[in-house]
Amino acid sequence: MKKRVYAFSEGDGKNKRLLGGKGANLCEMTQIGLNVPPGFVITTEACLEYLADKKLPAGLMDEVREHMARLERATGKRFGDPANPLLVSVRSGSALSMPGMMDTILNLGLNHDTLQGLIRQTGNERFGHDAYRRFIQLFGKVALGVPDELFDAEFEAIKHQAGVAADIGLSAVHLADIGERFLAVVRRHTGKPFPEDVYEQLEIAIRAVFDSWMGKRAVDYRREFHITPDQANGTAVNVVTMVFGNMGDDSATGVGFTRNPGTGENEMFGEYLVNAQGEDVVAGIRTPKPVHEMATEMPALYAQLVELRDKLEAHYHEVQDFEYTIEKGVLYCLQTRNGKMNAQAMVRTSVEMCREGLITRDQALLRVNPAHLEQLLHPCLDTSHNPTPLAQGLPASPGAASGRCVFDADQAELLGRAGEKVILVREETKPEDIHGFFAAQGILTSRGGKTSHAAVVARGMGKACVAGAEGIRVDSRARLATVGEVTLHEGDIITIDGSTGRVYLGAIPTIAPTFSEHLRTLLSWADEAAHLKVKANADTPEAAKEAREFGAVGIGLCRTERMFNASDRLPVVVEMILAPDVEERKAALDKLLPMQRCDFQAIFTLMAPYPVTVRLLDPPIHEFLPDEHSLADEIDALRQFRRVAKGRAAALSALGQAVETDGVGEDAVAAVIARKERLLAKVRELHEINPMLGHRGVRLGITFPEIYEMQIRAVLEAAAECVEAGVAAAPEIMVPQVVDGAELERVRAMVDRLRQEIEASHGVRLDFKFGSMVETVRACVSADGLARTAEFFSFGTNDLTQATWSFSREDAENKFLPQYIGSGILEDNPFEVLDVVGVGAMMRMAVEKGRSVRPDLEIGICGEHGGHPGSIRFCDGIGLSYVSCSAPRVPVARLAAAHAALLNGG
Amino acid sequence: MKKRVYAFSEGDGKNKRLLGGKGANLCEMTQIGLNVPPGFVITTEACLEYLADKKLPAGLMDEVREHMARLERATGKRFGDPANPLLVSVRSGSALSMPGMMDTILNLGLNHDTLQGLIRQTGNERFGHDAYRRFIQLFGKVALGVPDELFDAEFEAIKHQAGVAADIGLSAVHLADIGERFLAVVRRHTGKPFPEDVYEQLEIAIRAVFDSWMGKRAVDYRREFHITPDQANGTAVNVVTMVFGNMGDDSATGVGFTRNPGTGENEMFGEYLVNAQGEDVVAGIRTPKPVHEMATEMPALYAQLVELRDKLEAHYHEVQDFEYTIEKGVLYCLQTRNGKMNAQAMVRTSVEMCREGLITRDQALLRVNPAHLEQLLHPCLDTSHNPTPLAQGLPASPGAASGRCVFDADQAELLGRAGEKVILVREETKPEDIHGFFAAQGILTSRGGKTSHAAVVARGMGKACVAGAEGIRVDSRARLATVGEVTLHEGDIITIDGSTGRVYLGAIPTIAPTFSEHLRTLLSWADEAAHLKVKANADTPEAAKEAREFGAVGIGLCRTERMFNASDRLPVVVEMILAPDVEERKAALDKLLPMQRCDFQAIFTLMAPYPVTVRLLDPPIHEFLPDEHSLADEIDALRQFRRVAKGRAAALSALGQAVETDGVGEDAVAAVIARKERLLAKVRELHEINPMLGHRGVRLGITFPEIYEMQIRAVLEAAAECVEAGVAAAPEIMVPQVVDGAELERVRAMVDRLRQEIEASHGVRLDFKFGSMVETVRACVSADGLARTAEFFSFGTNDLTQATWSFSREDAENKFLPQYIGSGILEDNPFEVLDVVGVGAMMRMAVEKGRSVRPDLEIGICGEHGGHPGSIRFCDGIGLSYVSCSAPRVPVARLAAAHAALLNGG
């Protein structure tokens, strides 16, 4: 005959399909020597038979009785025995955990007679009656289908009658009365008396568990989470002996962690209560004691607890979160599961458990979720006081920051220099605000998405940023912002949380990031395990320094245009753009040359001997010019000023009065107007309909070769200076927006010419690489052609995603992407999680074609996906050489790279 | 011994490598029985030997003498014989034609003695002396390296001395004098007398031909045109008996075509001169006669000519352009080559030669270049008077048109209704100008490229358009335009040529298109030969009618947004966009529904039983709104108006006068301002950074499902009405901008729901197809997913090219693409010629993936490349089912599709 019931000592701890997750666990715990209260599991197969035949399988109850007899033998108690009653719990348990599926029935086996036995055993009449009335209600509801409200109404009636507000005010007599009333409720509702026979109780409970599998809650849950019969089919029934921690001073109840889940320290952590049940902790009647006190209070029991802890870790190789009860000096382990810990604890326990030999290095690495590392690398808000957010925006750059509101970059710089902490608040930011970013603790904008200027620049700098907080209306002229009823004036203190997108009034304390010794160790292991190298995107010497601190082995993306935006350079850049001919443009570029050279020299030196990949100018040059509208407004204002001034002068003159000067001469105003008009004309000339797909990248390098020439010269001259200074600089020149090998050949020819010239003039030999961004679809398709000239590729997956999807990121994120994700058309935002189907196919094609021509082609990724763990795994899978991401994400990427190598194999 | 010299009767007419192109032709002509003046070819191998050894191969001149003897036998003349001299021409000829490589030496064999023989033979002393002095100069220059200027100086001296201005004024005596002076020039320059020995002349000439192969002109030419030794190595020498058409009234010279190259008519065409040499025609001394006059003037010779013509066509199976000379009643054919003809003649001759059995149908089809058909389908300018263009723009939509300038669409409509022909002249056009397009003959803009609104709409309508004529400054407020010094006022007549981009002042006559019976026949053959079907892009019933006339077998792209732009609909569309909620939006859509249904019903009916593919709304909705700047300007103006009016009222009131009304109440102005402000706010809200990649296509359909629902309902209700009317409508619903199968599933669900409803309410069964545009890269990559829902694909290669290249077409064509093409980085504009490498790879992928899921998937192309012959061949090669292009290009595409099938095979 088919075996349908397994004692915990019999069942296969790995067979969750047959025994359910909980049942299998109890079997495993029992068999590894933990003192689990005796019990047994009725299989999921029995459940399916029951559901198919609409009746319990023949012989099942006989098998159950046999196992109950075993429990009686093990405990010395008897089921239904008024003198020394055996009580059990009955609960469901399928292969997959389905939280809240069916309530557990506790204390099954209680009736009028056995209640007396329980009271005698515990010496606690109130507890006994309370346990009984709880059993009746739960059994009534779960197994007999009596509505909860009927019981609640009786309970309230007694409380009202007794004149007490809280349950705790009820005496044993009240509770006994409630029990009787509950029995009457069941009798009225079901038309039958509450079953006094304990086996009848048990059989009804087993049927109820089986039935629950097809109940609405369970069916909905399985549909909602797409659980197929393949994954879980039917539920098992767990029948477990009840144990009581309230049987005297040699009894107790408690919960514990095998290590400290807050710090990861290797010390038992938890709380216990002597002579108490779990409910007492929940009810808050008594305050539990920290577990270490047990060592002095109950040393023998504490020794048992320590032994339990050791067994748990030795078996599970993982920090355990366990529940236990001590009944009359005997420790029972009721439940154990992997402990949930914060990132710091995960890191520390990983390193320490590995050192202790409990887990391997690979396991230590795989235990820690790379994304969680982020917690450790940015200050985060201490929200233990549950502050109410003032507004909600997009989490655009992680980290938290408090400071005074300022509404323009100049003010930010002014206050910042004066040592104030400030938050730059703008409708949106522009390149000319860059000095404000340097001065501010964080940036808050009311418009723009996760790739708005503010977001991208802040991420690059590792500063907190909340973008697109649309509830805030910023009026920078009036120097204030309003959020509903609240008005923020300049100088008011706010706090932003770039990890959640929340904005708070006032200063919320922050928790500083910890880059602990344990983290350093774990990351060094990660570097050994990984195939992918991790570099950083960094545009300044400061960022380069930070990148090295975070363990980047090079700079994978150094954006030269960021350097153009520095406040001392932007005017020269504008001069260059306004130049009417090549000669004047070259004159302006000659001024920029020493500035860029100096930047490069500093960055190369800081990063030596690691490579620094310099990307030549990428954005359309109109991005460096002011906004068309503001410029037109300014011109209007100046014209009006001039008209008024003229009118005033005329009037005074007519009155025969001397005309006073305004301090601003007519000519000066006219000159300013003329200059601004010239600028406006240029802005209009350069206007593009789709700047993302416009005159940018190498297209600029082809049409205005003098710009690229200046930049290449700056890189190579800086490299020459490094060689002269004995610094092992490793520069790489990278060309953006390439679509065809012919473009690369043009730029390469320029590079070769300049190299010869600079090697000759400096008398040194330059060592550098020349490569291509791969960020257009056509570059992927013609990657073989590119690889004939390029010595390395770097995927720009931001642009590549835009091109592959025909989605402009900012337009998409503001207009339709939320609805696409919300309605399930897309699972993820492809700008955050690399689209393996589309963009991934392009990348794979580029890798294959590129390496078909140049087998040792180095290939990296420098788009934002370079810091995303799932995307990193894909990059490892297609054989990339490195990923490059913003400096603060470097540790995340290093760990993710190790995961990728371990999970992808090879 | 190696044979180095071939008589024309011996040489292999196909062996151009050995005999050169010209030599092989002469051999072929001789051997097919044409009476070619006797001659022989010295091989290219002999040339290479000469160049390698720096001397003539041993025995070569002996072989030449032997062949000269044969010529003497054939002609009865003798080389160097003063009584009856044999004269020859010597010319080069390599395997590839290299025009103007070396001048031909004529009349070789003349000297003091033989000159007298020539004079006797021709009875023309002046001719004899002229021939002699020409020979001395040519031989001196070509074979002896005497600079031309030396001869010219002598010539001018004599002319001066004789007091004549033109050569024709010189007498025989003068010419004899010139001959003597030329001989003296040669003697002075070379230090040797001019060779009198005719074999010496011949040998020198042969060496000169061989040497010319390594001359600077030849070497440069071969480098310039990348001619490798593989293609042409060494030159042959052709020695041909001179024949003279000026030996009396039984002699003549002429040129002819075997058929009329202007009309294609099967009649001999050409001119002749009795008793004349070719030079006489060139000198313009006498007017040649049309060839048909020869039939009466010289019937016997005419009969010979007719025989020649028949032999030529019978052998070459192609219209021939030939030269002949009649010497004393004997017709010699000097040269023949394929005749160059205009498109009309090509079509007619193709059809007729096929009918005559001269060529096969396949040959008839392949003879005609599809691109040339365009000439036949648009009116073109009669520029025979060489008018001077006023300005130059981009050829944006082919055809020519004259009319009065108008500077806005309303005026265009007004004048157009009054029967005036008008040209709409704008800086650029917007959707609200659409009624002006209907009314105008053509469109001229000073801004925008080949995909500007003006260009695209004009092409769609088949109207002439010149776009981006930057030399023109349009001031639509002042109602004038200036081009340099010229000012165009409204009503001035101009002519635009959309095929060249030229703009002219005044009316230039146009030549109307001819859709001849021959063209119809040729296209019907094309349809039989082609695999690809040809459909048209058409958005209106008028365009549908035109499409059928041009032979389209369906509409491959019916853009519903064009219907939105009609002047009676745009206000409703704006109302729909401004709707604050779904309810009001639906109310506006309810007004659009009957309009769209009516359009569809008309188009389906016109096209039945051919399919009509309706594309659901594609452009971002902000395209239907007015321009932000103009709106802001209008609001400013209205506000100022209100201020002035208020001030005036206040002033009048203060003076105690009654305030007059302005006719526009304060409230009315305020209401207009408020409405415009609401519109402006919406325009700003909908603003997109990269509209090409923005909130458009199916993304609108997902976020505003009510818009797509209205359109689908309009299609299906129109289809139902057709069924009720017994019309075999074949509608197809097409979804634009798709990136993922999930999008299609959403729209398909909507379609299915509406179908059920409409089938039920109309009591009919609807038959239609549902498909997807493939115009994003991701759609190509996930085409298998798309094909699970889509029953057909249509490639939108305009957008796909933009996405693949990351080039915004308008920005690229205005900013950097010209330089890319000019500097050789790109060979073609990828928006005109399908980029087979990049876009082609995406298309191929989509075809393979799509058909892997649905083998019978119908796949077409509706981008502009659908009308480009080279691109059509690619489409045929990857197995597309159809191409769709603008109606006037349908004939081009039909022929190109036949070419593709014939050339691709299969």
TrEMBL record, chains A, B:
Gene3D superfamilies hit by this protein: 1.20.80.30, ATP-grasp fold, A domain, ATP-grasp fold, B domain, Phosphoenolpyruvate-binding domains, Phosphohistidine domain, Pyruvate Phosphate Dikinase, domain 2
First-tier enzyme category under EC: transferase
List of residues binding Mg(2+): E775, D799
EC number(s) reported in the record: 2.7.9.1
Gene Ontology molecular functions: ATP binding; kinase activity; metal ion binding; pyruvate, phosphate dikinase activity
Residues reported to bind substrate: R559, R615, E775, G796, T797, N798, D799
Keyword Transferase: yes
Domain of life of the organism encoding this protein: Bacteria
Domain Pyruvate phosphate dikinase AMP/ATP-binding: 53-289, 303-355
Signal peptide: none
Cofactor dependency: Mg(2+)
Domain PEP-utilising enzyme mobile: 420-501
Keyword Kinase set for record: yes
Catalytic residues (UniProt): H453 (tele-phosphohistidine intermediate), C862 (proton donor)
Listed NCBIfam families: PRK05878.1, pyru_phos_dikin
PANTHER family, per database record: PHOSPHOENOLPYRUVATE DIKINASE-RELATED, PYRUVATE, PHOSPHATE DIKINASE 1, CHLOROPLASTIC
Sequence similarity: Belongs to the PEP-utilizing enzyme family.
Name used for this protein in its record: Pyruvate, phosphate dikinase
The gene coding this protein: ppdK
